[in-house]
Design a protein that fits this description.
Elements lengths: L4 H6 L8 H9 L3 H7 L1 H19 L8 H20 L1
């Protein structure tokens, strides 16, 4: 597996670091392991599943408020900062 260019140059993890391992863990049914590798991938998989459910069954599940999505993105952003500090 090729090394992340951003990590190679800066020594910091980018938001995509661990993404491939996370997808592989998800496909093997290891949700907690996938979350440890990259929580953004797991979050995206869950949101994608919910959007598909909404489209297929014509039911609204996901919040429509912009504030929910802003807080969600801010939380992911802080996670990526914190994992580089620890």
């Amino acid at each position: 597996m090729p090394q992340c260019l951003f990590f190679k140059v800066t020594g910091l993890y980018c938001p995509g670091c661990g993404g491939t391992r996370s997808v592989i863990a998800l496909l093997n049914g290891n949700i907690w392991t996938a979350f440890k590798y990259n929580p953004g991938v797991v979050s995206l998989a869950i949101i994608t599943g919910l959007v598909l459910f909404e489209k297929i069954f014509n039911k609204k599940i996901l919040p429509r408020r912009l504030s929910f999505w802003v807080v969600f993105i801010i939380m992911l952003f802080f996670y990526y900062i914190i994992r580089n500090l620890l």
